[in-house]
């Protein structure tokens, strides 16, 4: 799959869990439809004309160097497992609260079908603060990488369970050409070994089993020690308490991505601050 390749599915070597397979199938169709309205050459131009980047990786490194937890605070309206998470849902207000709490970065869901996300959520959140922003979606084609930069994202997520090694390599190459940071997500040792073939320093360890949707933060405790010293492990999913944060830190993951727990709290800012200060 090169940058100008037709938009046709390419599947990982492993069998995808049913839910993820359905998501990816729908995402291919979505990309076909949306790229018909905005051709890739036009999206590339929009990406090149986008606002200046914010240093996503640098923000996490700075937080850790200052003795804080590198919190990537997430903004999402809903999830497949949890339904609607927060009402009223105000991305700009949430972004401002997370920044005030000391979060290093934001993560914003833009997937429409499964997470009730939108491009507007990311643009509103980014405009309301100075934090770098990760576009969290199911990125499977270069068109989406250009789209991510065009909408103002500073980083993208690549999920190894949803990609072949060739796809991951080429999507990262496009991201690097745009100065986008890449957070590569893994769920087990095999995916971690594949992810280490990429150049990105950011390795997200998802504690959620994609087959059962059950979370267990012991996954990070198992995988983080296997991440080389020149990479940055980021613990994702299932982190709910300061004790959980300390467990992740003790395992070697001084950076964490937390969303649903924070979004369900009455005082989002206080909840996020407790996470940042737990380390």
TrEMBL record:
It holds the Pfam family IGPS. CDD domains: IGPS. It comes from the Bacteria. The keyword Transmembrane does not apply. GO terms for molecular function: indole-3-glycerol-phosphate synthase activity; phosphoribosylanthranilate isomerase activity. Its EC number is 4.1.1.48. It catalyses: 1-(2-carboxyphenylamino)-1-deoxy-D-ribulose 5-phosphate + H(+) = (1S,2R)-1-C-(indol-3-yl)glycerol 3-phosphate + CO2 + H2O. One of its GO terms (biological process) is L-tryptophan biosynthetic process. Keywords: Amino-acid biosynthesis, Aromatic amino acid biosynthesis, Decarboxylase, Lyase, Tryptophan biosynthesis. Residues 20-274 form the Indole-3-glycerol phosphate synthase domain. Pathway: Amino-acid biosynthesis; L-tryptophan biosynthesis; L-tryptophan from chorismate: step 4/5. The keyword Amino-acid biosynthesis applies. Belongs to the TrpC family. NCBIfam families: PRK00278.1-2, PRK00278.1-6, PRK00278.2-4. This is Indole-3-glycerol phosphate synthase. It comes from Plastoroseomonas arctica. The lineage of its organism: Bacteria, Pseudomonadati, Pseudomonadota, Alphaproteobacteria, Acetobacterales.
């Amino acid at each position: 799959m090169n940058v100008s390749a037709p938009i046709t599915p390419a599947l990982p070597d492993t069998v995808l869990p049913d839910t993820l397979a359905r998501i990816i199938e729908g995402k291919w169709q979505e990309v076909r439809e949306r790229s018909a309205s905005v051709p890739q050459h036009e999206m590339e131009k929009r990406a090149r004309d986008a606002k200046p980047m914010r240093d996503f990786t640098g923000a996490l490194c700075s937080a850790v160097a200052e003795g804080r937890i590198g919190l990537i605070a997430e903004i999402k309206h809903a999830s497949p497992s949890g339904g609607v998470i927060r009402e009223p849902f105000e991305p700009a207000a949430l972004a401002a609260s997370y920044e005030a709490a000391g979060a290093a970065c934001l993560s914003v869901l833009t997937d429409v079908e499964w997470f009730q996300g939108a491009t507007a959520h990311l643009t509103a959140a980014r405009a309301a603060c100075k934090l770098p922003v990760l576009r969290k979606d199911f990125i499977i084609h270069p068109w989406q990488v250009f789209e991510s930069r065009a909408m103002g994202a500073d980083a993208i997520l690549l999920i190894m369970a949803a990609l072949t090694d060739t796809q991951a390599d080429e999507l990262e190459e496009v991201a690097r050409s745009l100065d986008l940071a890449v957070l590569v997500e893994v769920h087990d040792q095999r995916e971690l070994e594949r992810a280490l073939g990429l150049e990105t320093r950011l390795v997200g360890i998802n504690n959620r089993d994609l087959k059962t949707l059950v979370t267990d933060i012991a996954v990070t405790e198992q995988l983080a020690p296997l991440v080389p010293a020149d990479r940055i492990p980021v613990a994702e999913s299932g982190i709910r308490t300061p004790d959980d944060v300390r467990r992740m830190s003790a395992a070697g993951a001084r950076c964490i991505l937390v969303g649903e727990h924070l979004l369900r709290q009455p005082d989002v800012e206080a909840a996020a601050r407790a996470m940042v200060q737990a380390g």
